[in-house]
Design goal:
It is a single chain. This protein is of the alpha+beta class. The protein has helices at 11-19, 23-27, 53-65; strands at residues 30-39, 49-52, 69-79, 82-91, 96-106, 109-119. The protein has a six-stranded mixed beta sheet, covered by helices on one side. Strand 3 (69-79) and strand 4 form a beta hairpin. The longest helix is centred in the middle third of the chain and has 13 residues, at 53-65. The radius of gyration is 14 Å and the shape is globular. The termini are far apart.
């Protein structure tokens, strides 16, 4: 794990954001005009959910971090302005979620994220 293109974005800042107790630390890593594409059972590759801009991303993250669950950064690979990472989550009732993300960075901020997620049903 390391630093992406010497921009100050590190695997440790990502870990603190993902594993934090609120959405604020993670949201601070996104550019104002960032975009997240989410693919899962309900939003398949031909019609992913797309969240535009820091305001919408913040609302989504606030919802996620308001739930009774834990988040863990399982692995992170950085090369230039690209970051790939795995995140595992667990709800208090034992339901698990696994997500894989690919990020694009510009000036040390996330500008694009594609996330594929699956959960226990």
């Amino acid at each position: 794990m390391g630093t992406a293109a010497n921009t100050g974005f590190t695997s440790e800042t990502l870990r603190r954001g993902v594993e934090g107790n609120s959405a604020a630390d993670l949201l601070s890593l996104y550019a104002d005009d960032a975009e997240i594409r989410i693919v899962d059972r309900n939003t398949q590759p031909s019609h992913p959910m797309v969240v535009h801009g820091k305001e919408q991303i913040g609302a989504m993250l606030d919802d996620v971090y308001s739930r009774d669950m834990t988040h863990k950064l399982e692995g992170c690979v950085m090369e230039g302005d690209h970051v790939a990472f795995s995140e595992s989550c667990r709800y208090s009732d034992g339901v698990r979620v696994l997500s894989e993300s690919m990020l694009t960075l510009k000036d040390g901020k996330i500008t694009e994220q594609t996330m594929i997620q699956a959960w226990d049903e």
